[in-house]
Structures are given as C-alpha cells and as structure tokens.
Amino acid sequence: MTKDNHRQQFPALTNKAYFNYGGQGPLPEPALEAIYEAYKRVQLGGPFSAEVGAWVVQEAMLTRRAIASELTVPPETIALTEDVTVGCNIALWGIDWKAGDHLLLSDCEHHGIVASVMELQRRFNIEVSICPLAATLNEGDPVAVIADSLRPNTRLFVISHILWNTGQVLPLAEIVKVCHEPPLTPPCQGGGQEEFSLVQGDGQEDLSLIQGGRQEDLSAKKHKVRVLVDAAQSVGVLPLNLIESGVDFYAFTGHKWWCGPEGLGGLYVSAEALADLHPVFIGWRGIVTDANAKVLGWKSGSQRYEIATSAYPLYAGLRSAIALQHEWGTIEERYAEICRLSKYLWERLSELPDVECLRKSAPEAGLVSFRLTNGMPHKKLVDLLEKQGIMVRTILNPDCVRACVHYFTTEAEIDKLVGAIANQLV
Fold first, then answer.
1. Does pLDDT of 210 surpass 50?
2. β-strand 102-106 against 154-160: which pairing, if any?
3. 222 pLDDT band (50/70/90 cuts)?
4. Is residue 354 helix, strand or coil?
5. Which of 112, 358, 411, 424 is the most buried (most CB within 10 A)?
6. What is the pLDDT of residue 345?
7. CA pair distance 269, 250, nearest whole angstrom
8. Residue 394 phi/psi, 5° resolution?
9. Distance CA 65, CA 43 (A)
10. CA distances for 78 relative to 93, 168, 267, 297, 360, angstroms
11. Residue range 133-147: average pLDDT?
C-alpha cells in the first residue's frame, strides 16, 4: 500500500499537519467502522444476553492474542486495561511493600507515575530516589547510571522504554539485566541520586528533592530488582520481544502509536513476576467462582488484573488499527521509516538559526524535541502553529516543543512545519 493511499484512511489527516502521535494517534476509518459495528452487534444481540456474553469473551481473547503477537509474548501474560497509567498502577500497588523498601525511578518519568510513587511513599514509608538519566541524552551510559543507583533494598525500578520528553530510546534488555543481577557493591555516597521524600509543613505534604545518599549494608545479598516499564512511546514504534528482554512489567496503550481508540491499553506481566504481584483493583473478570458464586481464587495469568465491564467494542477497533499498520509494512519497516523521517525533521530544524534540538545526533524514534533560543515562549509558538493547522505540543520539563513523526508522515508535512516555524522566528 502506498503512503498516500494509507493516509487516506485517517480522517484526521485531511485538514492538518499532525505531529502529536506521542499524545494520541488519529483513528483510521476501518477502526471507526469496526467500533460502530461492534456496538451495533451488542444492541442487536441484547447488551446483557448469553450471546453477547460469549461474544465479549471471544473479543477479549482475540484482542489479547493480537497484542501478544505484537509484543512477542504468550496471550495469557496480557491484561487488558484502559491505558498506560492504569497498567503502571496495577504493578506499583500490587507489590507487597514494606517500610524501608526502596523504589528507584528516573528523572524523566511522566508526572502521573511520579504522583503514584509519592502516594506509595506516604502510605508505606518506602524509600524513593531518582536516578539522573536526562543527562545521558547526548553522552554518558544510562545503564551505568542505573547500576550506580541501585541499593541492596531496591525492590522496583520504574523506567520508560522511550523517554516521553526527549525521545531517548533506552537499552531495555541491558537495563533489565543489571536490575535482575545487581552488583554487590552499593553506590558511592552522594553518587548523583536525588532522594525523593514527602516533607511535613503547615499541615501540607509537599514533594521535595534532597541530594544525597546513605550508607548501605555491604553484606547485603544480591537480589532481583523488578522492572516496570512505561511503554507509552514504544509500543507501535519499536520491534519488541518482551520475553527476550526479560522485563517484568510493561504497561502500554493502544491510542498513541498504534492509532487505536482511546480507553484501551494493557499490561504485560512476566510469568515469574506474576507470582509476586497481587491484584489491587478486583472484579468479576479477574476471579474464579464455583456454581454458587463462591470466590475460589484468581484467574490464571494476567487476566486476574482485569476488573469488570469495559467498552468491549473498542477491542475490535484496536485490532483493526493494528491490522491496518501491517498492510503498510512490517514493524521493522515501519520503525525504519519513523527513524528516517525523524532524522529528516531533526536535520531541517537544525538548519534554523533560533532553534536548538535537544539531541545532538539524529533521533532513534519518532519524538523530536527542540527549544527556541530567541526568547519566544514555546506555548506561543505551539498556539500559532495550531492556528495554521499544524499540531505539535509543549513539554514542561525540559522546557521545549515536541513534534512526533509516524511512518506515514510525509516530507511535505515536515517542510510545512519547519517553514511555519521559520516564519514565526523572523
């Protein structure tokens, strides 16, 4: 399928230059039709009937299989959720935390995840620290930074596969390996970590960052640190094999790079991690009962983390969106095209005198972040571009503008974006 023919199936692309795939992808016409037909089938069959009940079970199974195929994992390892944040919260809250346990996260995580970690710290009196990965965007070794930040009491490391603010692609397999086989030697005191704490003051609880480290028990035994990945920007972009990566938890959504409907995502839980992750949100979809409705236990696999009634017609929409991408090319071909186009955008932006790209080399994914050096507020530029039908967004930390390219972005769209920026900077 040619790119022009492919683009014609996305109604949102007809009247704008769209660069916000990292926020939400446009829904293709076949997915819209699949959702509508599914809703109509539910109504014709009777929303609460045996026929529709059996159909719902089948739809969920087909959707888990479609997702599992994309992630190269068994279907039973996939829990269907609403979005990335729900998936992350299942993993964050399902661990049996004890006071004094340590949770490590990077300084590039989404504020929704940071807020969840803050509440974990408040409730369970766990230790939380932040490792400085933002500084490794152009130089340095993120794996070494992470290894230096692990402690003998670290139980969970929270990281993004592709950093949502800068677009940096992290080496997941290497990160998982160092977390599953952490070094015995603890990090040096004050080794660049930021300790994360809630400080009492005037009846309010505020987040404060305190530089420092602390002495660790040098005799502590090696243990496996679980790894939770926010995969908001990687699913639908990178070729993935989660089994080979060894990752424990991988939370994702269908509405960004897969261009599926909002309100449907998932969580991968490895077979090994499943035994230690307790369900927190609990409902009839995740439990097993006998003939008298007596609760017998959890369903096998990751389905135990599913809760209750959902917008089941979205399942058909997501499968349709994924299938449409395969009509254009393989995931390897799509990823190569994303990288080619993001490099083209990066090169064009680098030619502008008042624009500085955050990356000093070509991006490894579809997120291209840049800042203005002439003093113009980034929000003003974004607002001016939107009035011209060009969609980008601001990022607050670091303060920049982010433009996203997909495999079906065109050079003409990129030229339009760069030309419009140049005109605003004159």
1. no
2. parallel
3. low
4. coil
5. 358
6. 98
7. 7
8. -90, 155
9. 25
10. 18, 26, 6, 18, 37
11. 97
Helices (H) and strands (E) in the chain, counts: 13, 17
Give the residue carrying structure tokens 């809703």: 39
pTM: 0.92
d(CA 245, CA 143): 14
Name beta bridge partners: 337: none
What is the residue whose two structure tokens read 């393989």? 330
Cβ within 8 Å of residue 65, ≥6 positions away:
75
Contacts of 409 (CB under 8 A, 6+ apart): 19, 341
**Cβ atoms within 10 Å of 139's Cβ, excluding its own:** 7
Tell me which residue has tokens 């927190």.
280
Residues in the chain: 426
Could you count the other beta carbons within 10 Å of the beta carbon of residue 136?
Answer: 21
DSSP run (H or E) holding 39: helix 29-45
Query: d(Cα 200, Cα 99) in Å, to the nearest integer?
Result: 18
Tally of CB atoms within 10 A around 2: 8
d(CA 122, CA 425): 46
Question: 38-87 pLDDT, tens per residue?
Answer: 999 999 999 999 999 999 999 999 999 999 999 999 999 999 999 999 99
Which pLDDT score is estimated for 426? 86
What is the DSSP code (8-state) at residue 214? -
On whether the CB atoms of residues 424 and 379 are closer than 8 A, the answer is no
